[in-house]
Amino acid sequence: MTENNHIHTQPTQQPNWPAPTPQTTDYAMMPAPAGYPVSAYGMAPSGPIGQVRSTGTCFLLCIVTLGFYSLYWFYKTHDEMKRHTGTGLGGGVGLLLGFLLSIVMYFLTPSEVKGMYERRGMRSPVSGVTGLWALLLGWFFFVGMIVWFVKVNGAINAYWRSQGAV
Questions:
Q1: Among 22, 35, 54, 66, whose CB has the most other CB atoms within 10 angstroms?
Q2: How far apart are the C-alpha atoms of 8 and 103, rounded to whole Å?
Q3: What pLDDT score was predicted for residue 45?
């Protein structure tokens, strides 16, 4: 006697994805369906929005305070990014690394900014490689550090504005 052993499997159910409407044809920016984690869309829940800082004012404050404002800037920007995303260095570690190993911050800061953009499905204008500006041209009349700061602070400001900051 031969028995036919058939394995019966349930057909896999496809998630109930929302259909695109004429207003929302970009799937990356569509809301997650009920019951699915937001991270499946590459987006993370966001906390408070950070402050937009004038690049010129920050640059002037760095000169007037003989560079001490840059430590405050590292503290505040990393604190805001961590509060917003729930990940990253945070203000205390950003301040400590900025004080002890500032060259590391030239790579870590734009890398965290890139992470913020990517969590929202946006293309980042900066990445860890942006730190090469400070590393390779920082000694030449601070040109590399100026370019680095303009790029990174501009990217942070653009991100905060995209989230509704004024």
A1: 54
A2: 60
A3: 53
